[in-house]
Amino acid sequence: MAVLGWPDGRVRPLLFGGSPVLPSGVHVDQGGRFLVGADAYRAARLDPARFEANPKRRIDQETLLLGDAEVRVVDLIGATLHLVATEATRIAGVPPGQVTVTYPVAWAGPRQAKLVAAAQAAGLGGVTLVPEPVAAATYFASRGAHGDLVVYDLGGGTCDVSIVRSSPDGLQVLESGGLDDLGGLDLDQMILEQIGAAVAPIAPTQWARLTAPGTQADRREAMILRDDVRNAKEALSRHPSVTVFVPLIDRDVVVSREAFERAAVDRLSPSADLTLAVIRRAGLDPANLAGLFLVGGSTRVPAVATLLHRRTGIAPTVLEQPELVVAEGALAPPAPIPHSAPPVSPPPPRSVTPQQAQLPPAPHRRRRMWTATAAVGLVAVVTAVVVLQAKLGDDGGRQPPPQTSQSQSQSQQPASKASVVASLPDPCTMAADLKQRHQFTAPTATSSPSKRSCEWHFIYEAGAGGLQIDLFLDTDAGSRGLFRSKRSPSPSSDEGSPEPISGLGDEAVLLREQMAELQQGTRLVIRDRNVLIEVMWYGYAPPDQDQRRFSFEQLRTDVVAVAREILSKLG
C-alpha cells in the first residue's frame, strides 16, 4: 500500500495494476532481476522455487535461497520499495522528498534497522519510521476520535493490537501485543483445509502433491490453488458461497460463507483474547475506551468484527478500505485535540521560533520504540507503509502560505508553553561522540507543546541500534511527578530495578533492559528543575562481531555522557 501526498494537501494512493494493494511477493529470475507484486505471482507460476510470498515473515533471516540464488532479505524488501518509489516519481514528476515507512510496533531495533537499510538500498533518502498503531490512531484522531483508542490490525501474516492515547500532548502507545502466527494467510489456510476435507479422502495422493509439492509442476499447481483460495476468501465477504476448482483432482468444491465464518471465529479467537489482555494490561475499562478501530485488509472478513464485538462489548469501527488507514494516517498531520481548560503560560522564554508541532515518539517499551511524522505513503512487503512526499515547486506545487498578520500579532502575546519548549536546546545537536563512533542516519526531530525529541538509528556490519532523546517541560512539581512515573520499570518490559545516578541534575536513575539475546538497552531519566530528560540508547552486535561495544557497561557510559552534554547546554 502506498500513498502519495503533495505540499498543497492533495493525497492519492498509488495504483499497481489498477489496484491500491501491492501484493507482497517477490520473484528473482535467472538473471537476478527482481519482479514484484502481480508480476512476481505470474512469474512464480512458471518458476515457483524462485518466489517468496511473504518477506515480512523472513525479517529475522539474513538470506533466503530462491532457486539457486542466495538473496538477502533486505534486497527483497528493497525491491518492493524501489517499485513504489519509481511509481511515485512517475506520478509526481519528481522523486519523493520525504519517505515515511511504518512498521509493526513489536519490531525492535534490528528489524527496524533492516527496514531502513532496505529503503536506502532502494534509493530512498530521508527515511522516517512510524509505528503502525500511531499512524492508524492519527487517522482516526483526525476524524474526531480522542481518548484511548484500541487499534486492531490484522494483516496478511500478523495481528497486532495497541492502545493509543490521543491527548493534548500528542499520541502515546500505552500498551500493545502481537501474534506473529495469525493473519490473512492463516484464513487462506483454513479454507484450504476445508477443501482438503472434501477431496483428500477420494484423492489422497493428488492432495498430498498439492499440499507438499515435490516437483516444479506440482508447485505450480499448488500456487494456482492458493491464489484461487485467496480470491475465494475475499469473495466470501460479498457472496454467500464460492466455488474453487482443485487442480490435479479436477473437482469443484463449494465453500459457504457460513462454514467459513464459523471456522474463522475459532481461528481468530486468540486475537480477541489478545485484545482483552492488552486492554487489561493498560489498566483500562472497555466501557471508557474511545473506540475499537479495525485496520488491515484482513479485517474485511465480517467474522472479525462480529467476534470482537461479542468478546469486548465494543462495536468496532469498520471502514470500507481498512488497508488504507495506516498509509493515510502516516501522511496526516496531528489532529487538534480539545482542551478542557486553557493552558497555563510559563515564564517568558528567550526569543526562539517554535517548531511546527508534530507527533511525539511513543514511550520506550520493548514492543513500542519509535514514532515519527508523516509525508506520503506506501505499504509493501513487510506490511509497511511508506509515505513519500513530493517536492513540487514552479511546476504546479503550491508553496506554503505567507505568515498572516494574525500569526504575527500572536507572536507578541505572552509566551505559550510550546514556545518555551521550543527554546529548550535542540536534542538533535547532542550526542556528538556517538555520531562519530556509529553511522547514524539523519535525525528525526519531533515536538509537542510539552516536549522536544530527537531520534537516530543506524545499521552497519558491526551492529545496529538507536538513540532517542526526550526533553519534557513542566512545572517543578509536575516534573517531579513525571520523574516518579518514568523512573519505574515498565510492567511490560524486561527493565531491571532503577539504579540511582549521582551528579546528574537534581535526581537521576538508570534502567537496564535486555531487549533480545544479543541486544542491550539503557534508559536514563533525569530531573533538572522543571525539565525532565529521558535518554534511551540500545545496540545489537551480530554473533561474529565484538559484543563489548554494546555491553551494558559501555551503553551505561555512553548514555551518561550524552546526559552530561544535555545538562551542560541547559545551563
From TrEMBL:
Pro residues bias: where? 335-351
Q: Which UniProt keywords apply?
A: ATP-binding, Chaperone, Nucleotide-binding, Stress response
UniProt biased composition (Low complexity)? 404-421, 488-503
Write down the InterPro entries for this protein, in alphabetical order. Answer: ATPase_NBD, Heat_shock_70_CS, Hsp_70_fam
What Gene3D superfamilies does UniProt report for this protein, alphabetically? 3.30.420.40, Actin, Chain A, domain 4
- Superkingdom is Bacteria
Residues of the region (Disordered) are 335-366, 393-421, 482-503
Answer yes or no on keyword Transmembrane.
no
Q: Which GO terms describe its molecular function?
A: ATP binding; ATP-dependent protein folding chaperone
Per the record, the similarity remark reads: Belongs to the heat shock protein 70 family.
Query: PANTHER family from the entry?
Result: HEAT SHOCK PROTEIN 70KDA
Write the protein's name.
Answer: Hsp70 protein
